[in-house]
Amino acid sequence: MIAHELKSHRLILVPVTVASCTAELKENHELSLLLNAVVPGEWPPPLVTPETLHEFIGMLTDPISCRLCAWYWILKSAGKTSRPVLIGSGGLYMNEDGSCEIGYSVLMAFQCQGYATEAVSTILDFVFSQGDIETVYATTYPHLTPSIRVLEKNKFTPDGPGREEGTIRFCIRR
Asked: Which among 59, 50, 118 has a CA at the least distance from the CA of 92?
């Protein structure tokens, strides 16, 4: 599956590429130029680490067998500024069994405002329109209530324990 730019009511979802991951590893200014968006000083959001970015680069380097499809989430307009603002990221990892997992992370200042719900909905519309994915899974911790609400609002249902200790898994089927 190849990521394309996606749009929702308030967001533009720009595909993550080797170039954007490389820029992100260097400095926010370079990423800002590449995305044509303000990159807040608190970027990256939780769970986006240099190790994660290196993993993404490794996966994206081989587009034929790439099982990663991810996006930067850019807020079209933000209050006083007329420039778009990078607020989060997320995407899909395709499993060998035909299912896929969704993950996402949003900067603290933009949490609990419906952006993750909107982005996840847009990503689900995209993935299910491709025709070959039947099930999408998500894993989170029980104490991350806002993350669970994002999943519930997108019609995910509990599906048992997650792979990592202490996590729970949710799923949605087409």
From this structure: 59
User: Which residues, 6 or more positions from 94, have their beta carbon under 8 angstroms from its beta carbon?
Assistant: 1, 67, 68, 69, 100, 133
Peptide linkage before 44 cis (omega within 30 of 0): yes
Give, for all 174 residues of the chain, the pLDDT tens digit: 778 899 999 999 999 999 999 999 998 899 999 999 999 999 998 788 899 999 999 889 876 777 889 999 999 975 665 789 999 999 999 887 777 999 999 999 999 999 999 999 999 999 999 878 889 999 999 999 999 999 999 999 999 999 899 999 999 998
> Which residues are within 8 A (CB) of 76 and not within 5 positions of it... i.e. 6 or more apart?
10, 11, 12, 84
